[in-house]
């Protein structure tokens, strides 16, 4: 690297990549646009030690190494000048990739022993900063402690943001919007309303329509409350459809009635066969799993739209092997499926007249139609006419989420449940979670719906604890 004479543009930066960035996103070397990327030798060593196994991290480490091998093949004599990234990235990145081609002996404070991999990378950043005093040298790392150490040494550092869908999750689409009387006045040009069956429809035109999304749920409070779903948008014209009231006991689904507005919205989406993908966000106790299972059982056992319910969830650590000791896939997944059992107990108690024998028969029937699957064996599968529930979806990366959703064949409905404030996967944040990713990317598609549940419905004790503790 010291022999490099190529004059760098004064405004182009030099980003030094920590190992965890490449293991989190192997394509990260192509994500820095016109800036240059530097990979220390210690980063390559750590990639090498993490490449074994079948985990997502090992897979990413191998892929990152493949990308770099493809770039430097046949360039051994010109590595000092860096390798252009533009051809491989199809002009997405116009900078250059530099690998550490010589030993760097940088003097760091005595309290940072050079034997540690992190400190060796910090030494490289320190050396590059001295070597290029007129250029911004920035360490990119997903490791918070690494960034803290870099800042104490006066080195520029930042997190890897490219995979973040949103900077602020408060801006995340919540699937609903409150409207008022002025909304109707602003958008009442050529207003039409009609009845079809037991549903009401409104055709509105006006300036607010451009801010609506298909399948967004609208509600109006006050003297004349109304709840509606946007079913189509064309330019400045939108058509609204009134919702079915699942809060009324006569419309209960498998004995479960909606207890609040958001739950009613969720059941309207879950019971609509035209909606193929649904995401439900919410804190613990908001009813995500219960509502989804009730809707799944009603459509599997009563209306027979789906042949069975498949439930899966992330077993943290993500994608770890469930082992090959005796026991079926379903038996090994059961420790993680306590939520499923709890909700089945509730659903099984709804028929008070059935008696113990009736309830036992119902329980067996329900269990025969619910399959519990591990994420490990999802690749390459195709699900036909299945009701697929992905629980704890906030622990999935965007790539894993894509792998799961693309399993859906004709007639399959996919429901993602999760709480983005409870992420257990290393290096995933609220902004980069696969659940945030799908909520943002699917909004406005005519066959998807989303709702954020806010009110807990467990008990007064759970509500008070959630608020006060």
Describe what is shown at a glance.
With 469 residues, the protein is α/β, with parallel strands linked by helices. The chain contains 14 helices and 18 strands.
List the helices and strands and how they pair.
Layout: E1 14-17, H1 19-24, E2 36-39, H2 41-49, H3 56-72, E3 83-84, E4 96-99, H4 117-131, E5 137-140, H5 144-152, E6 156-158, E7 176-178, H6 181-186, E8 192-196, E9 199-205, E10 217-220, E11 226-234, E12 237-242, H7 261-270, E13 277-282, H8 288-302, E14 308-313, H9 329-333, H10 338-348, H11 355-369, E15 370-373, E16 386-391, H12 398-405, E17 413-418, H13 434-442, E18 448-453, H14 460-468
Parallel strand pairs: 1-2, 1-5, 2-4, 5-6, 7-10, 13-17, 13-18, 14-15, 14-16, 16-17
Antiparallel strand pairs: 3-4, 8-9, 9-12, 10-11, 11-12
Q: Could you please describe the fold and organization of this structure?
A:
There is one protein chain. The protein is of the alpha/beta class and 469 residues long. It is built from 14 helices and 18 strands. It has helices at residues 19-24, 41-49, 56-72, 117-131, 144-152, 181-186, 261-270, 288-302, 329-333, 338-348, 355-369, 398-405, 434-442, 460-468, and strands at 14-17, 36-39, 83-84, 96-99, 137-140, 156-158, 176-178, 192-196, 199-205, 217-220, 226-234, 237-242, 277-282, 308-313, 370-373, 386-391, 413-418, 448-453. Helix 2 (41-49) packs antiparallel against helix 4 (117-131), helix 7 runs parallel beside helix 8 (288-302) and helix 8 crosses helix 10. The model is unreliable at 1-8 (pLDDT under 50).
């Amino acid at each position: 690297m010291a022999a490099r004479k190529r004059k760098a543009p004064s405004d182009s930066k030099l980003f030094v990549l920590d190992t965890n960035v490449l293991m989190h996103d192997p394509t990260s070397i192509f994500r820095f646009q016109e800036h240059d990327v530097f990979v220390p030798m210690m980063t390559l060593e750590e990639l090498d030690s993490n490449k074994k196994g079948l985990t997502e991290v090992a897979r990413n480490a191998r892929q990152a190494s493949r990308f770099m091998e493809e770039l430097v093949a046949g360039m051994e004599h010109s590595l000092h000048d860096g390798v252009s990234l533009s051809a491989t990235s199809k002009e997405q990145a116009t900078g250059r990739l530099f690998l550490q081609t010589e030993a760097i002996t940088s003097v760091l404070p005595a309290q940072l022993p050079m034997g540690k991999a992190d400190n060796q990378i910090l030494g490289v950043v320190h050396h590059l900063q001295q070597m290029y005093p007129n250029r911004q040298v920035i360490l990119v790392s997903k490791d918070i402690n690494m960034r803290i150490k870099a800042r104490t040494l006066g080195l520029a550092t930042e997190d890897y943001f490219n995979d973040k869908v949103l900077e602020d999750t408060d801006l995340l689409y919540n699937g609903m919007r409150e409207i008022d009387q002025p909304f109707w006045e602003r958008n009442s040009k050529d207003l039409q309303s009609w009845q079809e069956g037991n549903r009401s429809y409104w055709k509105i035109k006006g300036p607010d329509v451009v801010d609506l999304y298909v399948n967004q749920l609208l509600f109006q409070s006050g003297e004349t409350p109304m709840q509606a779903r946007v079913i189509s948008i064309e330019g400045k014209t939108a058509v609204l459809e009134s919702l079915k009231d699942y809060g009324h006991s006569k419309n209960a689904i498998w004995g479960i009635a909606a207890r609040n507005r958001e739950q009613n919205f969720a059941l309207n989406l879950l019971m609509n066969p035209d909606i193929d993908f649904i995401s439900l966000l919410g804190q613990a106790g908001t009813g995500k799993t219960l509502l989804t299972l009730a809707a799944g059982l009603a459509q599997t056992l009563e209306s027979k739209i789906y042949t069975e319910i498949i439930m899966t969830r992330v077993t943290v650590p993500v994608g770890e092997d469930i082992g090959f000791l005796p026991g079926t896939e379903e038996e090994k997944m059961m420790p993680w499926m306590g939520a499923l059992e709890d909700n089945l107990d509730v659903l099984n108690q709804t028929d008070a007249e059935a008696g113990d024998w009736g309830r036992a028969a119902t329980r067996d029937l329900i269990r025969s139609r619910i399959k519990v699957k591990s994420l490990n064996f999802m690749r390459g599968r195709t699900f036909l006419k299945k009701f697929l529930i992905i629980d704890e979806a906030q622990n999935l990366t965007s790539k894993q989420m894509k792998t799961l959703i693309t399993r859906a064949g004709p007639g399959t409905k996919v429901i993602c449940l999760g709480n983005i404030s409870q992420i257990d996967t290393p290096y995933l944040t609220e902004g980069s979670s696969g659940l945030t990713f799908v909520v943002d990317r699917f909004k406005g598609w005519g066959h998807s719906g989303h709702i954020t549940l806010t009110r807990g419905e467990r008990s007064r004790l759970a509500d008070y604890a959630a608020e006060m503790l």
